[in-house]
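Design a sequence for this backbone.
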């Protein structure tokens, strides 16, 4: 269950960027081939942040689909369009399509911080 170690790394990133615990959400991108189970990652993140200042932080996950690209004519196609075709060739120029890199990766894309001034004005 590598989702627990991933959740722990996300937590460390969160702590380093919001040491006062003033984060409300963190957004990550998962490649189509990252082999990460989203629900397991959500559960692991809840377990790691439980009883910390980050216990209410939302983990938002964006899944990146397969993207095929033609290196010759620079056209790109998403997974659903490629799946409709039996050919691995570009429908425009006939050259072989390649998968876009990064499909197995995961990255933290953003951290949403609590607006301190708005909180002080509301109280």
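Sequence:
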């Amino acid at each position: 269950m590598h989702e627990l170690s991933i959740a722990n790394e996300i937590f460390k990133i969160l702590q380093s960027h919001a040491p006062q615990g003033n984060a409300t959400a963190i957004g990550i991108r998962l490649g189509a081939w990252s082999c990460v189970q989203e629900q397991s990652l959500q559960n692991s993140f809840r377990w790691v942040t439980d009883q910390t200042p980050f216990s209410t932080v939302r983990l938002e996950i964006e899944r990146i689909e397969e993207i095929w690209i033609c290196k010759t004519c620079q056209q790109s196609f998403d997974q659903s369009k490629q799946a409709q075709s039996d050919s691995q060739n570009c429908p425009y120029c006939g050259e072989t399509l390649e998968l876009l890199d990064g499909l197995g990766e995961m990255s933290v894309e953003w951290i949403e911080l609590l607006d301190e001034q708005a909180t002080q004005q509301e109280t």
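Confidence is low (pLDDT under 50) at residues 117-123.
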